[in-house]
Amino acid sequence: MKRRRRAVVVVCDSLGAEQIDPATAPCLSALRAAGADFSAARSVFPSTTRTSSASMATGCLPMAHGLLGNTMVLIENGQLVRLSAGKPDFLQRLQRATGRTLRRPTWAERLAGQGGTIVMSNVSPGAAYLQDPDGFGHVYHRSGSRGPGGQALADGLAIEVGAAGDRAMTDRFCGEVLRERAPALAVLWLSEPDHTAHHSALGSSEHLAMIASADACVDQVRRTVQALDPGGDDILLVACSDHGMETVGRQIDLDALLVQAGWKEGPESSDLVVAPNGNAALLYFAPEARSRMAAVQRWLQQQDFTGRVVSGEALSEIGLPTDGPLGLALALRCDDAVNAHGVMGRSVAVRSPFSSSSAVGCAQHGGLGAREQHPFLCLTGGGFRSGQRSEPVSLIDIAPTVLRHLGVAADGMQGRPLEPP
Ligand SMILES: [Zn+2]
Fold first, then answer.
1. 137/223 Cα distance (integer angstroms)
2. What angle do CA 286, 290, 294 make, to 5 degrees?
3. How far is the CA of 192 from the centre of ligand 1 (A)?
4. What is the crossing angle of helices 205-228 and 26-34, to 10°?
5. Tens digit of each residue's pLDDT (9 = 90 or more) over 208-232
6. What's the confidence (pLDDT) of residue 356?
7. Residue-wise pLDDT tens digits, 307-359
8. What is the whole-number distance in angstroms between the Cα of residue 294 and the centre of ligand 1?
9. Mind listing the domains of the chain with CATH numbers?
10. Residues in the 5 Å CB sphere of ion ligand 1
């Protein structure tokens, strides 16, 4: 009998490539040495988890799949409305506002009837469901688990965000998903070290312990895969992060600053609406406010918190759409400052009404900083052999690589399949 090919993807949320060393993450270090280690892997922009999840699942940039951040602005009843894309009901509101969820098919849709997809995720519900928003496969999450057609599953995932939940989820993933159910694609998305780093310092003992926790989970998956496929031909194992992190050096209230400068009518006004995304912000303009856009851009360029402001056609150069109410993209200023634990990378962050995770001294992501844009990406099995690979690659290349391994078409994806040597 012909053996069926499979792919396993493990995501250590927020674990930057520079944070992996043999002392803290022995298993990941060994895995990178044993596999194809893509040292120039890049995130998408904004480098937030929900955008990353949609980009990994569709093999497309935000401009194509339409999920523009952890916070998004939708047009509801003719008004710009700011929403957290992490809430369980976000996808219904996105569908009501735009007529669809993601604008491109996910890997779960492409693999329906081709061996299927099972996702287990311990990050936000929004990021989990964006792996498969229209219910083609199975998604397990603490907020509710769903099978094909969106049917609620009785065997939910009763865990909490954090290391203990990640461990329990990994146990179940290795036993039930990898050994018993054996779907064509199995995705495990760990909440650490992201969850802890948002409330502690990069390189602190708390943060290092969570890297070690993620490392042990990846190792359990690696050992399971090795036991199932000792030759390494049939199962492609992708270990990666969605983005890295920067230390928050300063937090700004962009709404208040725009109101104070006269560009926005009030803190809750819908003329100019800011979608804060950690170390980035997207500015949406109602039709009556678009005449202000160029002046707002000039003003932003003069502010000491600004790294880069992008508008018009140039939005497509950073992967964003040019055809909607989005007017300006702001990446906050970053530098190479080193924190008290010797970890390099500092950014200004934007305060968000939906999150308390941008405190000064703690870690954040979302922008274009060197660290937050540098996830790790390591492939083993499926013909990938040991070696450093320095070509530029991106999160959107993972889905076409997985589909090529599985022998399923990846037409319409913006990413390209990574080639074994
Ligand atoms: Zn993330």
1. 25
2. 145
3. 9
4. 50
5. 999 999 999 999 999 999 999 999 9
6. 79
7. 999 999 999 999 999 998 999 999 999 999 999 999 999 999 999 999 877 79
8. 32
9. 6-67+102-244+373-406 (3.40.720.10), 247-364 (3.30.1360.110)
10. 13, 49, 242
